[in-house]
Amino acid sequence: MAGSGAQRRRSGQVLFLFVLPLFHPALCEPIRYSIPEELAKGSVVGNLAKDLGLSVLDVSARKLRVSAEKLHFSVDAESGDLLVKDRIDREQICKEKRSCELQLEAVVENPLNIFHIIVTIEDINDHAPHFPKDEINLEISESVSPGMGTILECAEDPDISMNSLSKYQLIPNEYFSLVVKDNPDGGKYPELVLQKTLDRETQSAHHLVLTALDGGDPPRSGTAQIRIVVVDANDNPPVFSQDVYRVSVREGVPPGTSVLRVRATDQDEGINAEIIYSFLGVADKAQHVFSLDSTTGNIKTHRSLDFEEVERFTMNVEAKDRGSLSTRCKVIIEVLDENDNSPEIIITSLSDQILEDSPLGMVVALFKTRDQDSGENGEVRCSLSRDAPFKIHSSSNNYYKLVTDGDLDREQTPEYNITITASDRGKPPLSSSTTITLHITDINDNAPVFRQSAYLVHVPENNQPGTSIAQVCASDPDLGSNGSVSYAIVASDLEPRVLSSYVSVSAQSGVVFAQRAFDHEQLRAFELTLQARDQGSPALSANVSLRVLVGDRNDNAPRVLYPALGPDGSALFDTVPRAAEPGYLVTKVVAVDADSGHNAWLSYHVLQASEPGLFSLGLRTGEVRTVRALGDRDAARQRLLVTVRDGGQPPLSATATLLLVFADSLQEALPDLTHGPTPSDPQAELQFYLVVALALISVLFLLAVILAIALRLQHSSSPTAWGCFQPGLCSKSGPKVPPNYSEGTLPYSYNLCVPGDQTNPEFNFLTSVDHCSAMQDILNNDTSSVLLASILTSSVEGDKTSKLVST
Ligand SMILES: *[C@@H]1O[C@H](CO)[C@@H](O)[C@H](O)[C@H]1NC(C)=O
Ligand SMILES: *[C@@H]1O[C@H](CO)[C@@H](O)[C@H](O)[C@H]1NC(C)=O
Ligand SMILES: *[C@@H]1O[C@H](CO)[C@@H](O)[C@H](O)[C@H]1NC(C)=O
């Protein structure tokens, strides 16, 4: 194209050049050429030789050449064409000049001639418009109102005229438009005009592309990126995520627990979005309980919550950005009740003592319960420790009565620790308890009780007066004087007059003392009724019997009752029939021992016999029997010395002398007696009369008996019976038995049986007497009176015959 344009111009030049030489030397008109810029090297600008009127030969011969300050051209040495030697950039050479001409001289030698040549460089559109920066960064506040313009930098295009910058274009955009304005000094500049309010929150940046176009054909363009950052304005207030925050918190949470976080957002950015939270309202007690983190909006408990104090907190929280736009929200914190309060027991009235005979239902204490929790956590129930005789009566409004529910016994339980437990119905339940100590006061409800139901003591006779013989003991579980026991003797089987001379009891200790030496033979046993009595009012007492058995000691020697000495001290004798068979019972030694048992178990021994072997003596019976028949050589009078021993340790003994006379009758025996070895008694005569009198009485008595038997036989045919005479039988008027025989063993020697039939007069016995006074006298050791009494009684009552012979 450039070539074809140059061709056309060249034909004009050629025409012009034809005429040029003609005027050449005179005119000195420069030779003009016109070429577009940026021709390739070697391109022909024009045929310089021809234009100078030189022949081809002259070109080399005359050494045609061009010269300039800066040589862009050369001359072809053969054809004389002016050739482009170097790159020709119009913009470089001529900058912004509208016409761009290069001046050079053509030089020929022989003769030397100089021609002026002007080469006009024509512009081609070889440059596109170009922005100084590829990227244009703008910051526009969102608060800017539409219509505001921002001048943009211009693009540059070094080309000129048509090829230079002709217009700007902006990619269509709702927010911005482009206005191209003319500079007062020429040129145009683009201005960006805001069409619509920006909103950073919607779109924080805008990207635009600005295009600059030149007027070339075809036009060339350059672009620049416009980056618009929307600068934030504090046009948005903070917004809470909720209008009302509602949260429930257990009351037990520890201080510092995070409860809730309020969150406000601000669509602005940067400092405009920095939110500060604060409580609204100053005197809000919630602020003492909660703390609010001003930057995070975190609400924490400041101290522990107590449902019982405040059930719900309502607070206003404000969120404020730095630009002082603010909003508020409401925070409701509900405190949930927890079972954190134990029930309380409040004793309103208490009697710490109660009588042990208090009736059922006696009020011991009044109390009430309290639990600060609500609902089930505050429902209280009371219970008691088991196995105490009390119960709880609930009256209205958590008031309770503690009453007795059973018999109280101070002796069993002197005090009760009553534990009242109150527990609520929370999960888990809480409970508390209170212990009441209740003392049971004593009443005198227990009589003394003796350790034993009866006491029995054995006291050997002949004890020391004043010794203690027994101790009774009674206990009384009552308290103090109600339980202090004193002893006394309240009754006895001794005569009241003599009681105090026998025994006494210590009131404090219950020790029973003997006041005298006891005699088993006089008093074998006695019984006391002792009373234990407490000091209560009224006093209670108990009786116990104490039986004292006086033990025997061998303090009595046997006493021979038969044979006894006569009243005058002479020995009595027994007669033995001469014809007595062997084994004939001659007589019986009778002895008694006032002691009892072994001490009274008598044995009989022959100490001395005038004719040993003639008589035998029963060891236990004391019976004297013949061993053999009497021989002629045997003396008519025999003498046996007998000793009687008791079984005591040591034994005591007594001796007796038996005088036995072999005779067929008393009369026969008497002479013997008078001629006996002891007739020289001065009282013999008196005795003789006495015996005669006795014999007479006996005969009379026999007659009387025979008469009585005959009469009796006449009335009834009852057989004659053997009477057994026992000491008991003699008593017709009460217990006249000597008291020392009522206990222990009766000496068997007393238990004698004699035939009721007195037909055999040879049975010479002093058997049992039948009058107690007689017996008493015997025992009382008055020998002479025994004999007399026996005689008298037998004559009066006539039960049996006794033949008493005095020697
Ligand atoms: C009652 O409690 C008191 C004091 O705690 C104690 O000394 C006493 O032994 C208790 N009594 C009973 C019967 O448990
Ligand atoms: C003894 O019992 C009586 C009632 O019988 C009572 O009044 C008194 O207080 C009791 N004495 C003591 C020391 O407990
Ligand atoms: C104890 O004995 C005395 C005298 O015999 C009598 O008065 C009293 O009632 C008795 N007491 C008891 C508890 O038996």
Structural commentary:
With 807 residues, this protein is mainly beta. It folds into six domains: 30-122, Sandwich (Immunoglobulin-like), CATH 2.60.40; 135-336, Sandwich (Immunoglobulin-like); 344-441, Immunoglobulin-like; 449-551, Sandwich (Immunoglobulin-like); 559-664, Cadherins (Immunoglobulin-like, Sandwich), CATH 2.60.40; 682-798, no CATH class. It contains ten helices and 49 strands. The strands form 15 sheets. A four-stranded mixed beta sheet has the order 1-7-6-3. Strands 8-14-13-10 form a four-stranded mixed beta sheet, with no helix packed on it. It has a four-stranded mixed beta sheet with strand order 16-23-22-19, with no helix packed on it. The protein is rod-shaped. 28% of the residues are buried. Residues 490-491, 529, 531, 541-543 line the site of one 2-acetamido-2-deoxy-beta-D-glucopyranose. One 2-acetamido-2-deoxy-beta-D-glucopyranose (NAG) binds at residues 415, 417, 437.
Mean pLDDT level = 79
Strand count, sense and closure of the main sheet?
4 strands, mixed
Helix content: 10-25%
At CATH level 2, the architecture of the largest domain is Sandwich
Strand content: 35-45%
